[in-house]
Amino acid sequence: MAMREVVFPEGRQDLYNRNRYSPAVRANGFLFVSGQVGSREDGSPEPDLTTQVRRAFENLNAVLFAAGCTFEDVVDVTVFVVDPESNLETIWSVVPEFWGDAPYPALTGVGVSWLSGFHFEIKVVARLPSVFSSTITKCPDDSV
């Protein structure tokens, strides 16, 4: 069985160890990032939704950074939201601080009833820039 190439950011190890998962795994030129929540260093949820969303993005960015990526490398996003009818406007007011400019990544939003005390979770797939920058070439006829 092949070993997983796991990426761990600085800190927050309690959450990953307690729940038995890896923050991200590198495979085939991509980084698959586990769902990131707005947890404090000890793994507990931030009580304020706006702060929780900011912290989820900060935690996501820490995982991306540990793998040599930024949010610009993200190609696919899945967000999970508890009670989206009540919470989505607050969440989307924070997103532009981290999201960047168009073109945006692909997005799937899922309304859920439970996230273990959290109200927002973000999971992404990013391309590994070092892999793609060394393997992408132009088409011979320069048409693409």
Automatic annotation (TrEMBL):
Pfam families in alphabetical order: Ribonuc_L-PSP
Protein's name according to its UniProt entry: RidA family protein
Phylogenetic placement of the source organism: Bacteria, Pseudomonadati, Pseudomonadota, Gammaproteobacteria, Enterobacterales
Gene3D superfamilies: RutC-like
Superkingdom of origin: Bacteria
Species the sequence originates in: Symbiopectobacterium purcellii
